[in-house]
Batch of 2 targets.
Target 1
Amino acid sequence: ERIVVSGAALKSKLARVTLRNVPNHPGIAARIFHTIARHDVVVDDIIQTLGDGGKATIAFTVDLGELSDAKKVVDEIAAGIKCQAAYEEKLAKVSVVGIGMQMHTGVAEKMFKALADAKVNIQNITTSEIRISCLIAQADGHTALRCVHDAFGLGKK
Amino acid sequence: ERIVVSGAALKSKLARVTLRNVPNHPGIAARIFHTIARHDVVVDDIIQTLGDGGKATIAFTVDLGELSDAKKVVDEIAAGIKCQAAYEEKLAKVSVVGIGMQMHTGVAEKMFKALADAKVNIQNITTSEIRISCLIAQADGHTALRCVHDAFGLGKK
Ligand SMILES: C[C@@H](O)[C@H](N)C(=O)O
Ligand SMILES: C[C@@H](O)[C@H](N)C(=O)O
């Protein structure tokens, strides 16, 4: 039950690809990411939610430098599976890293509150047991890292 | 650049809460998860994507046993922030764990392909550098774990 937030990190110069109205049946995610991998585009995080219309939204991040390659591949994929593709640049990912974080919803709310108090808008969220990552505007990156450091008493570096 | 998939895991008896058309401005995520934490509901993973209408979709998982408590809290939150809430039971999370997985989109596509070949539908995806998790129907849990074990040569246990 003990949770320790051991650090915070910022990854800048990210771009996001969002596929919307993705058909929600087996094989689609495999096809999308197989094609992307075949074109040597390196994917950072992948997030998928389901819409109420039975379709899926799949978002993933890439380094900004890979976006133009990713666009070529993804536009073709989107046409093939008949879904929409949208692209966003100038993003950053701020993360809180710890141990046993899922035992405590308190860590997520504390991180979200720190960002909210700094008026940093959270665009995407992805979590694991040891990490909570929020995708935000790149311009908010350093503010976000500082606020999260302060909120968790992580000290200056 | 070396990636090692070191294991696979299955977590069953999960339920999912999906909030749709969530207002996308600072403070909303903090409010949602603060309220949830205050009611002692333990949240497993959190996923957020953005819709094309400028609203957000936030999905999170809880142990099945917490769903009825979560529903009371979330219905009230949804009414307060004017968004929709949907609930899903009988879910499971299959994960692949490794080191340096983000260096290789190949791990994600291999996992998704293993699930696709077994006709297991992927409902949600969340990743970190060391973990890829897919939320699936609980009935598919054991099949999914076996297929992922086989795909990555993880051996019997
Ligand atoms: C949307 C996509 O993830 C689909 N459900 C699949 O299993 O491949
Ligand atoms: C939707 C929610 O994440 C909102 N963008 C916030 O920052 O709180």
Target 2
Amino acid sequence: IIELAGVEKIYFAGSVPVHALRHIDLEIYRGEFVAIMGASGSGKSTLMNILGCLDRPTRGSYFLEGVDVSELDKDQRASIRNGKIGFVFQGFNLLRRTSALENVELPLIYSGVPAAERARRSRIALSIVGLAHREESHPNQLSGGQQQRVAIARALVNNPSLLLADEPTGNLDTRTSLEIMGVFQALNRDAGITIILVTHEPDIADFASRVVTVRDGRIIEDRRVRRV
Amino acid sequence: IIELAGVEKIYFAGSVPVHALRHIDLEIYRGEFVAIMGASGSGKSTLMNILGCLDRPTRGSYFLEGVDVSELDKDQRASIRNGKIGFVFQGFNLLRRTSALENVELPLIYSGVPAAERARRSRIALSIVGLAHREESHPNQLSGGQQQRVAIARALVNNPSLLLADEPTGNLDTRTSLEIMGVFQALNRDAGITIILVTHEPDIADFASRVVTVRDGRIIEDRRVRRV
Ligand SMILES: Nc1ncnc2c1ncn2[C@@H]1O[C@H](COP(=O)(O)OP(=O)(O)OP(=O)(O)O)[C@@H](O)[C@H]1O
Ligand SMILES: Nc1ncnc2c1ncn2[C@@H]1O[C@H](COP(=O)(O)OP(=O)(O)OP(=O)(O)O)[C@@H](O)[C@H]1O
Ligand SMILES: [Mg+2]
Ligand SMILES: [Mg+2]
């Protein structure tokens, strides 16, 4: 489903270029549950942004379901992002002036889903993450972990076939983290959703069937794990 | 050094009041290293905001080094925050349009420290968190964990006697987290800095000599730990 070949990403910030990704070859198959680990600054979020069609590599190619993403125009990439991909951002990226419910509805608005159906599906997503009782709240009225869970609900509401989650449990206590990972696991096992999840916590990586380790913009380890 | 008595915090968001803190009695002694744990939404950040003089309780009193904080005016509280307290925010709260170095310098600007001395001390703080090579970068050019480390450096630069850190390792890999906790431990042991740290990770809480657990706005456990 995903094929990155020779991917590099260089940022030009100030005087010195930053080689965020140096050479990435990566194949991910439909229905896999992959954890990405690595030190702070090693390139994980940059990799996720490319996978999520939010950014383009400086060199190399990205084939998503056989389609060369670099050949697509802006609208086509937006359409893929909205239809196929759910993205939980490391910084949440919620709209500050709208409610939790409206934040979760956003992907459905882009998809043209009618208002009543939109609200119904968004409420389901919010209750899955334990926030049904806070749908009217704005992000600044929510705790850090509650904001993170709104971001998770928004990523799930469009029934994506690919879920990209960048540190989705970073602000959650252990028990809430395990609840969320249980949701992801069920989606992977029962709905066949492909999941790529960045985490720095080994207990969270344990839910994945494959662990990819990044260091200084390269993949230094790619390990399949046997699960019962 | 810190005495909270009968502290309550009620938010009025929409139709239903939110009892973020219901009844908090808490005493913290000079030089202690306290971890605060609890579920997402249980009131930890609200408690930290009151301790950091950024917010006032709805009821109850807060004595900081024997001074009744509620008796102080806005300027006096700002002066305490700048002089005595270092705060690492759960959401970092960096200024987006200025460099990492300038973000770290901010508390020193408020304290009236001259420019050369300011830059020198800020560079030391950035190198302590491993970001000396990125002082010119703006927050949007930094990874999540790098932004978190800039926030940590900023909290330390004014040599505070009280460090309040809200999930300071939430975006950091295990090794970087342990490096940061080593810095905090050294400051506590050698400089006698009082540290109150919110975390959801038991391995991080292990660095503390006391663990306070919050649930639904109340303290349900307060446990001192023997350390070698
Ligand atoms: N400005 C506000 N208006 C309304 N409710 C608020 C506001 N700020 C916080 N709350 C609510 O108060 C409760 C406690 O929030 P707080 O941020 O202290 O939780 P927390 O323990 O830090 O959670 P987390 O671990 O998710 O960061 C939550 O239910 C939150 O939604
Ligand atoms: N817009 C940008 N301009 C310059 N450098 C950037 C930019 N975005 C990211 N970087 C740099 O690229 C490198 C990789 O960043 P990335 O966000 O992918 O790291 P990460 O592995 O997600 O880290 P973390 O675990 O801290 O979130 C870092 O050194 C970062 O500072
Ligand atoms: Mg990242
Ligand atoms: Mg919090």
